[in-house]
Design a protein that fits this description.
Blueprint lengths: L15 H27 L5 H13 L6
Length: about 70
């Protein structure tokens, strides 16, 4: 079966308030990705199930994260 990829280019025009929220959101995402990257780097050879158990499950069980 042949696969087709469709890409859409969208330009956003956020308000000042939306831009502040977007920047905060992207900052948190960057911090989380850097944390996960450092975590994996310190544990060379870690497998996905171990990573999932170490990082995802503690967050998903924490009601304060909701």
């Amino acid at each position: 079966m042949k696969s087709i990829t469709i890409t859409a280019k969208v330009k956003l025009y956020p308000t000042s308030e939306q831009m502040i929220i977007l920047n905060k959101t992207l900052s948190v995402i960057r911090d989380v990705l850097n944390f996960v990257s450092a975590f994996v780097f310190e544990r060379e050879g870690i497998r996905y199930p171990e990573l999932d158990h170490a990082l995802y499950y503690p967050l998903s069980d924490d009601s304060e994260c909701i």
